[in-house]
Amino acid sequence: QVQLVESGGGLVQAGGSLRLSCAASGGGISINTMGWYRQAPGKQRELVATITGGGITNYADSVKGRSTISRDNAKNAAYLQVNSLQPEDTAVYYCYLRTNWRTDYWGQGTQVTVSS
Q1: How confident is the model at residue 1 (pLDDT cuts 50, 70, 90)?
Q2: Which of 7, 34, 50, 71 has the fewest Cβ atoms surrounding its Cβ within 10 A?
Q3: What are all long-range contacts of 14-17, with beta carbons under 8 Å and residues at least 24 apart?
């Protein structure tokens, strides 16, 4: 069974930065894509960024240019650096993983709160 453990959330002032980490565990993982989604109160979960095993990235327009997603394939880990945080970035951030067999897994979520 694949488990995703996120870390790095917290309270940040507007204009600040944070780095989220996600580590996947579980035997025999064959990972295709890893990424991050977020869900703000009263809103639907939305894409933040994804990265394939080959390093192809995809970003939501809302974070493009101020975020960087990266991945360590040897560690089955993904990282999200977000700069110039704004209050509208406040949300629960979820790590996401899709295997090569198109099975999706989600982390438990980590709260990011940006104060103005």
Answers
A1: confident
A2: 7
A3: 14/85, 14/86, 14/87, 14/114, 14/115, 14/116, 15/84, 15/85, 16/85, 16/114, 17/81, 17/82, 17/83, 17/84, 17/85
